[in-house]
Structure prediction request, 537 residues.
Amino acid sequence: MHGTPLDVAHMLAGGMVLVSFMLLYQDRMFALLNVFALHAVVLSASVAWQAHIQNAPHLYVPAAIALVLKGIIIPVALHRVVIRLGIHRTIETVGGIGLTMLLGMGLVALSMVVMLRAAATADPLAREDLAFALSVLLLGLLMMVTRRNAVSQIVGFMSLENGLILAATGARGMPLVVEISVAFSVLVAFIVIGVFLFRIRERFDSVELQALDEFRGERR
Amino acid sequence: MDLILELGAQGVQMILVLVLAPLLLGYTRKVKARLLRRRGPPLLQPYRDLLRLIRKEAVLAENASWLFRSGPYMIFSATWVAAALVPTFATGLYVSWTADLIAITALLGSTRFFLGLVGMDVGTSFGGIGSSREMMFASLAEPAMIMIAFTLALLAGSTQLSYIAQFMLTHSSLRVSLGLALAALVIVALAENARVPVDNPATHLELTMVHEAMVLEYSGRHLAVLEFAAALKLLLYLSLIGCIFVPWGLAPAGSSLASYAVGIATYLGKLAVGGFLLVLLETSIAKMRVFRVPDFLGIALMLGLLGMLLLFVSRSF
Prediction:
């Protein structure tokens, strides 16, 4: 498979990586949520395109789930959570943005090198898609590590999970059940985390995770 | 006869950029005003401004050196040469072998060097602030530009703009690295032209201005020349983006007059669309704090680096 279909798939997967970097860079709460919605929309477009070129109509289901659930419902819900918690100010990052960006670049380079070597014999479409998916996943992890605020850590977690779906649709023959259950498990996780957010806030008057560390006796 | 035609086409390009630059500026101002539901100055206002400034007396500070007087002309000529080298309506013009992306970057870098010097020459504090900020931005914008040049060179196999445009025309395909290079180039262009997220071209509020601070001490014909150079630079970046990323309509070397006419028409169309998109972006976002700009430009650098990295790993990106 070569030519334009491959190029478009690459563009969309590369767009996911780009939006992941935008997530890393954003340090305002509402802008972060908007970028996260964009992340989900690009994911949905990418999955739909995979469904189109792989002739796998069942893949349209995860695409629709990504669009509705992660593109609309979760950002709107997080928006309301942020307002209710009253934390729509800037969020501080651990270390500067420049350092985080450099780390992100390193992770992308790492996933490229690993994937292109490990799957050297695979179909180029699947291989390069997987490389992009791995970088989205690692960037999501990096975001969870560099943020102190619980809400932005949730966004990091969700973007990580977007990377998982990208990887799952890039590989042929992933059963539909797996994809749908992954999508719904994220919704469950979101609800659980949402409940916990309010519990944490009630207890410590803050959603900064440092407060938890201090409570457990881990002083810096 | 062929030589005369080729020289003629090159001459047309040199005159074209000169004539169009103030018009583009007037167009962006008009569209911006219309988007803000104001009427805006007429399209030809920049020409009138330039004429008025040229007629006026030039006032010099007492301690201005020869550099202060000759700086504007050096800046203008280097910018003009750079703008005339970028393929606007045709590739393969007479001196297109010198139209190298790195050479153009170097020309623009030297104009920035002179602008920084003349900003500091008189010794006023605003000029100094402007120069130091400009240099801070440049230290990130220029590496980003070089990264973009490397990405394109890895892909097309040359840094010569005519060749790159031809390559894009024949091997047109969606590529991730090209998308990254485009995003980086847009950011660099915004910063280099002192447009809104980085600097406000219409401001005279002392603490936020960068480009305006450096030319604050100028008046009369010197100011006219500097403003003309700024307009040329905007045109240069728009035509650069146009010739690399939307090369359709460019007339190939040695083509007929009709295809040159088509080239000019599509070029005007590209400028109109590009100027509109620029203004749309400007009206939809706010200006950044000066100390956030390095982060913004760092993204351009990072995107350029990422694009190059992808191309090194696999040529199919």
User: Anything to note?
Assistant: Chain A touches chain B at residues 3-4, 6-8, 10-11, 13-15, 17-18, 21, 25, 97-98, 101-102, 105, 108-109, 112-113, 116, 124, 128 (CB under 8 Å). The mean pLDDT of chain A is 80.
